[in-house]
Amino acid sequence: MHRMPIALTVAGTDPTGGAGVLADSKAFHSRGVYGMAAVTSLTAQNTMGVQDVFNVPAEFLEKQLESIFSDEVPHAMKTGMVATVDMMVVVANMVEDHNIPFVIDPVMIATSGDALIEEESIAFLRNTLLPAALTVTPNIHEAEKITGHKIEQEADIRKAARIFLDELGVHSVTIKGGHLEGDAVDYLFTHDDTVILSEPRIETSHTHGTGCTFSAVMTAELAKGKTLEESFRLAKRYITSAIRNSPGIGKGNGPVNHFSFREEQVHE
After folding, report:
1. Contact status, residue 11 vs residue 25, Cβ threshold 8 Å
2. What pLDDT, on a 0 to 100 scale, did the predictor assign at position 268?
3. How crowded is residue 228: how many other Cβ atoms within 10 Å of its Cβ?
4. What are the helix (H) ranges across the chain?
5. How far apart are CA 122 and CA 255, in angstroms?
6. Strand pairing report for 194-199 and 184-190
7. Which of 14, 79, 188, 232 could cysteine-pair with 20, CB 3.0–4.6 Å?
8. pLDDT at residue 267 in the model
């Protein structure tokens, strides 16, 4: 029997389906990977913003993860919104017990600007969770918050990357430059190498869930046994297509299209 690769997301919900576990699940399935999800927080949100958040008790998150891992260990996992220190401890313990590729999308602020994480959680994220990850995928605002440095140009991105690698001890960092001016440039920094991918900026407000989706696609590719660089390159092409072909849903920052990317359209 041919076994499908399995990817797990540990994140919050978005009832309108543009971000969080629903977006991750769509991204996994669109990449031919079987998706699993443990829910950290229930949000009341839409394309216009986050109206309310209910955090799942950490003990219940632990039960969800135990249910998953006692039955079938996924081939890769990612975290999105993990709002409290207690939940991060649960995730850290699970990661320690299972040696699988782990991607952290350090979700702190929604596209709409709403805060999604407690302040003391950021310190725990920085000190304990980040070093356990294969890669962490912050956008500019998240990278600023984690490193404590303003990012306005490429030199600042490189400086932030050095803090991630040298001071915080992460294996690699994927900094998404979508919030800067000019082309949409994303960077993968490892201790040995830097990969920079640039695409013309698509003028649109329909970018809800891009961070979730980008990291989910990387996780899906890692679950298949792809390298970090291969996963990064594919995620960049996928997200560009997903933004370009957004389905036009909602009154605010609409979601991206998880089903527009076809590899055969891409000429290497």
Report:
1. no
2. 41
3. 21
4. 20-30, 58-71, 85-97, 119-124, 140-147, 154-162, 210-223, 228-244
5. 26
6. antiparallel
7. 14
8. 45
Strand-pair partners of 46: 49
Q: How far apart are CA 217 and CA 212, in angstroms?
A: 9
| Per-residue tens of pLDDT for the chain, all 268 residues | 568 999 999 999 999 999 999 999 999 999 999 999 999 999 999 999 999 999 999 999 999 999 999 999 999 999 999 988 999 999 999 999 999 999 999 987 665 666 666 678 788 889 999 999 999 999 998 999 999 999 999 999 999 999 999 999 999 999 988 767 788 899 999 999 999 999 998 888 888 888 999 999 999 999 999 999 999 999 999 999 999 999 999 998 899 999 999 875 554 4
Which one-letter DSSP state was computed for residue 98?
S
3 state DSSP class of 124: helix
Distance in angstroms (rounded) separating the CA atoms of residues 82 and 11: 6
| Contact yes or no for 7/223 (Cβ under 8 A) | yes
Q: Which residues contact 203 (CB under 8 A, 6 or more apart)?
A: none
Q: What is the dihedral of CA 139, 174, 120, 208, to 10 degrees?
A: 40
Which helix or strand (DSSP H or E) is residue 187 part of?
strand 184-190
Q: Which of 258, 252, 202, 188 is nearest to 35 (CA)?
A: 258
Q: Which residues are catalytic?
A: 176, 207, 209-212
Structure tokens at 145: 């918050």
| Cβ(40)–Cβ(85) below 8 Å | no
CA distance 246 to 251: 13
Six-digit token pair at 170?
């992460």
Residue pair 79/10 in contact by the 8 Å Cβ criterion: yes
pLDDT of the residue at 192: 94
- Alpha carbon of residue 201 to chain centroid: 20
